[in-house]
Amino acid sequence: MPDPRNLKHAKLLVDYCVEVQQGEWVVIHCQPVAEPLINAVVSAVLQAGGFPTVMMELPFYKEILLRSGTEEQIRWYSPVDEFIVNNCAVSIYIDSSVNVNMLKSVTPEKMQMRSEPDGKWFDSFSKRSTSGDLRWVYSIYPCAAFAQQAEMSLNQYEDFVYSAMGVDQDDPVAHWCHLKNYQQKLIDWLVGKKEVVIKGKHVDLTLSIEDRIFINSDGKENMPSGEIFTGPVEDSANGWIRFNYPAVFNGQTVENVFMRFLNGKIIEAKADKGQNYLETILDTDEGSRYLGEFAFGTNNGIRQFTGNILFDEKIGGSIHVAIGAGYPKTGSVNQSSVHWDFICDSREDTSVWIDGNLFYKDGVFVVGI
């Protein structure tokens, strides 16, 4: 029997997250393992009056390209990708995998090469998203590979995923509207604020949010969501932070990462695992040693690390930063072909002060609500 939660998931993506309208071109990016959800999404798009195009990527395509391709082939920016990102009205990306470790043997140098066309795509994507010409959502299909990564059975993982999305509730949209209203109160308090000071056993960091905009991530662009984020002033970060969750990027994992900042730039970076890979990514381009994002995770339906950034950066009681490209809609002007999130559990002995006011203590917001 088909899982009825796939139908609710699809309707949530199409009707709430991207609000497909009559006559719009909707591109669905996916892999074959997600077929039950893909079929439900196509049906929901048709019901909404949209025109669906399914862009199916074979599971091992990227591994074959990176292992066997020449430098020219790896750096090639597909005109199909360029046309889609510049012309579709809606993009729905459904992530899934048959093996989360398939890129483990790919060298950091080849990963860095691929970041060039990815960066071009991301630049076009960000500009159209910021202008409102492109609506998008990124979600996942709860497959066996992701369950193994999270060290859960498939049934456990499905329950976890659908709970984090509110799909297990009678009215998932009402769930997300409630979170949106809660987060907006926090954002309204943050308007006009300037200095952020973070103190704790894993962090001693200051940065500026002056004239920057916090975004209410309410499930419209990530499903699940649950965060408020901005782009810090590029030259403002000073101090250090240790990320007590692993960080995964392009199938590679680094652990127990320590970063020290001076006038916005990462001047020291250490990892207990993946040091060479970390340094290679940090040296990708001019913007990859600066922060493009600073955020608070607010989804209390996500309490544990799973190895999937879509969930992990939303962990209730966490903060995270991203090195590299910022989102222009936040006011960030940092440009890079990299955007890599690093997460710090802040539920113990961590305080965030904003313009001298205690804003956040041990994973709980204490003002602004």
Instruction: Provide the residue-averaged pLDDT.
Output: 94
C-alpha-based Rg, rounded: 20 Å
What is the strand tally?
A: 20
Neighbour order of strands in the largest sheet? 14-13-10-6-5-18-19-20
- Biggest β-sheet description: 8 strands, antiparallel
SSE-based structural type: alpha+beta
| Number of continuous helical runs | 11
| Total number of distinct structural domains | 2
Low-confidence stretches: none
Shape: globular
Q: Work out the helicity level.
A: 25-40%
Q: Beta-strand percentage?
A: 25-35%
Measure the end-to-end span.
44 Å
Ordered list of secondary-structure elements with their pairings:
Layout lengths: L3 H14 L7 E6 L4 H13 L3 E6 L4 H8 L2 H5 L3 H9 L2 E6 L12 H24 L3 E6 L3 H6 L4 H11 L7 H19 L4 E6 L2 E6 L6 E3 L4 E2 L3 E4 L7 E6 L3 E3 L2 E3 L2 E6 L2 E6 L4 H8 L8 E7 L11 H4 L5 E7 L14 E7 L4 E5 L2 E5 L2 E2 L4
Parallel strand pairs: 1-2, 1-3, 3-4, 4-8
Antiparallel strand pairs: 5-6, 5-18, 6-10, 7-9, 9-15, 10-13, 11-12, 13-14, 15-16, 16-17, 18-19, 19-20
How would you summarize what this structure contains?
This protein has 369 residues and is of the alpha+beta class. The chain is built from eleven helices and 20 strands. It folds into two domains: 4-164, Thermophilic metalloprotease (M29) (Thermophilic metalloprotease-like), CATH 3.40.1830; 172-365, no CATH class.
Keywords:
369 residues; 8-stranded antiparallel beta sheet; alpha+beta; globular; 2 domains; 11 helices; 5-stranded parallel beta sheet
